Amino acid sequence: MRVIQTKDYEEMSKQAFNVIFNVINKNENAVINTTTGASYDDVFNLLVESINNNKLSIKNAIVMNLDEYIADRDKSFTVYTYMQEKFYSRIKTQPKLVELLDGSVSDLQSEIIRYNEVLKKFPRDLQILGLGVNGHLGANEPGTSFNSRLFCADSEESTIESTIRYHHLSRKEAPTKMFTLGLADIMEAKEILLTASGERKAKAVKAALEGPINVNCPASILRAHPNVTFIIDYAAASLLEKDYHNPPVLKP
Length: 252
What we know:
With 252 residues, this protein is an alpha/beta fold. The protein has helices at 9-26, 41-52, 79-88, 108-121, 157-167, 183-187, 202-210; strands spanning 2-6, 31-34, 62-65, 67-69, 97-99, 126-130, 151-154, 177-180, 192-196, 228-233.
């Protein structure tokens, strides 16, 4: 695992953007599976700017998503809404194909079957992840088997609280279930990008990097993957005992 420490969120976002830029730039038909949320707000801004200024072409790219809440698609907190507002509505050139999970369907199992076919058809060049305060990846909460595959998960209270905070929801409005790629699905990507920012993530970062590799911290499994870039700011790295001095990621 390549660990890069940055001084702050802004620099973390630039480094994460460079990873994504390089993958798309070197793969003519790049398949990108992304997450959403605060960790990637600025990354999407940088992607929009780069695409609209003709510095990055995504016309041959395939873009998918890691997860989706079980809710009507037009709710303010859904992955669908995030991707439309933060990315697709803002770029002048669209990807060749966009594949999103649909959490509004009545038959959840049929949607899982459909999206599994999408995953099989388009092997991922890059899997983009955020890190939950309890070490979760997507909706793979602590205790989830490392062999998990795309499923409908119940969110832990800490995850629900993060959703409430980020989307300014009431407890009653907050979703409690979501589709998510399983940990085994995540590990099948050729390359993985993970970011974490702020003191709230420090315990999870320490568990992911320096704790035992077990289901108590789902993110710890990433240490078994051959090509992971983990970008953290100084606040998120504040509890680490080891020093990590990997060089920054440069655009080609």
